[in-house]
Amino acid sequence: MSKCEQCIVREFSSLKALNKDELLQLSDCKTSYTIKKGETIFEEGENVNGIYCIKDGICKLTKLSPNGKDQIVKLVKKGELLGQRAMISEEPVNLSAVALEEMQVCFIPKSDIMGYFDKNNQFSMNVMRTICSDLKDADDHMVSMAQKTVKERLAETLLYLEETFGKSSDGSLNVQLSREELSGMIGTATESCIRLLSDFKKLGLIELNGKKIVLKDSSKLKRISE
User: Fold this and answer.
1) What φ, ψ does residue 4 adopt, rounded to 5°?
2) Count of beta carbons in the 10 Å neighbourhood of residue 16
3) Nearest Cα to 70, choosing from 177, 183, 211?
4) At what angle do helices 179-186 and 150-165 cross, to 10 degrees?
5) In 10 A of CB 50, how many CB atoms?
6) Which of 38, 42, 76 lies closest to 57, judged by CA?
7) Beta-bridge partners for 70
């Protein structure tokens, strides 16, 4: 079992404020899991009662719309935490988390982590900053959905996927989303997303090979997204 003080999550999350003794205590109470691609970490409306540390892999956070379609709200990568807001507000999670690839995660129960809010002020501030940042991202996403066209949102999303998650050795986006998942990110019908991707390909902006997407002209995509 890996120790929390040696974990990548500590470097990029609120846990970086905890000292060595506090991290050793967390190591004794955490539970490690392997989540397979397509498996659910938690579902919307569930009482999680703790936080999940993403050691490796990527998951999608989704919201079920009234018409029964999953809207992808955010993608979460290694080094991030899940469940902080629900843990503090003592409410069920308002999103579902589903693995996009095999993941390594650790679960820390609420009872073992809430004490650090009283003992470690910097930890409390880090958690608050993370939640504020998530709210800012949600505001920005809402404005984008309301003011930008679907074409602009698709260009913006493709650039975001490359900038945030990088490229594979063949130049394609590291995150391989189905057309349905990609349409869920930009808030449109799957058919519209497929048609726009085909248009981008004809314009020489991208290459398509199954689920793989290669960005060929990021500068033009950037202009479209603005």
Assistant:
1) -65, -30
2) 13
3) 183
4) 110
5) 23
6) 76
7) 64
At position 88, the amino acid (one-letter code) is: I
pLDDT value of position 70: 80
Tell me the three-class secondary structure of the chain, residue by residue.
CCCHHHCHHHHHCHHHHCCHHHHHHHHHHCEEEEECCCCEEECCCCCCCEEEEEEECCEEEEEECCCCCEEEEEEECCCCEECHHHHHHCCCCCCEEEECCCEEEEEEEHHHHCHHHHHCHHHHHHHHHHHHHHHHHHHHHHHHHHHCCHHHHHHHHHHHHHHHHCECCCCEECCCCCHHHHHHHHCCCHHHHHHHHHHHHHCCCEEEECCEEEECCHHHHHHHHC
**Is the pLDDT reported for residue 64 higher than 90?**
no
Residue 1 has what pLDDT?
A: 46
Query: pLDDT (tens digit, 9 = 90+) per residue, 118-148?
Result: 888 888 888 888 888 877 887 777 777 667 8
59 close to 79: Cβ distance less than 8 angstroms: no
How would you classify the pairing of strands 31-35 and 103-109? antiparallel
For position 125, what pLDDT does the model report?
A: 84
